Amino acid sequence: MNAILVTGYRGFELSIFQDKDPRIDVIKAAIRKDLIHYLEEGVEWFIFTGNLGFEYWALQVAKKLQADYPFQIATLFTFETQGQQWNEANQAKLADFKQVDFVKYAYESYENPSQFRQYNHFLVQNTQGAYLFYDTENETQLKYLLKVMQEQADYPITFLTFERLNEFLEDW
């Protein structure tokens, strides 16, 4: 696997509203373990979409791992206008997504809903697997991307689920 798409729940979907929430440390520890596994398997790229929450925490972990492992990070934003209305703290997080090895925007701005479908297909066609913090028992908009992933032949998905997170916490 050369490139892994990293995405998952946004902070508000997990009822996490503060950067100092202790649950973030547990999530980050699980992320670290999983990303190291990918790196030991030879992954060369982690691909992000620039969403806050799980993706941002994974980005923070990945950036720290770059000191010890040879890999690159890319952010493929849906729109060039993504995050323009975010508050100052979230603007700083957006800037972190832009300070990676490769940054690209799929579209200049929103025009119609088909852009999301095309973007999801592009992400899956240009990665060899996904690392996804998602549980089908707690659906969000990610269900559309997951459907595209599941329709793609030979597209492995590693799920970080609430159950897996609880198991990790017991061993932590």
Structural class of the helices, strands and pairings? alpha/beta
Any low-confidence stretches, pLDDT <50, length ≥5? none
**CA radius of gyration:** 15 Å
Indicate the multimeric state: single chain
Spatial strand arrangement across the major sheet: 4-3-2-1-5-6
Gap between N and C termini: 28 Å
Strand content is: 15-25%
Overall spatial form: globular
Biggest sheet architecture: 6 strands, parallel
CATH topology-level name: Rossmann fold
Question: How much helix, percentage-wise, in residues?
Answer: 40-55%
Topology:
Blueprint: E1 3-8, H1 22-40, E2 45-48, H2 54-65, E3 72-79, H3 88-98, E4 102-107, H4 114-125, E5 130-133, H5 142-151, E6 157-160, H6 162-171
Parallel strand pairs: 1-2, 1-5, 2-3, 3-4, 5-6
Helix pairs in contact: 1-2, 4-5
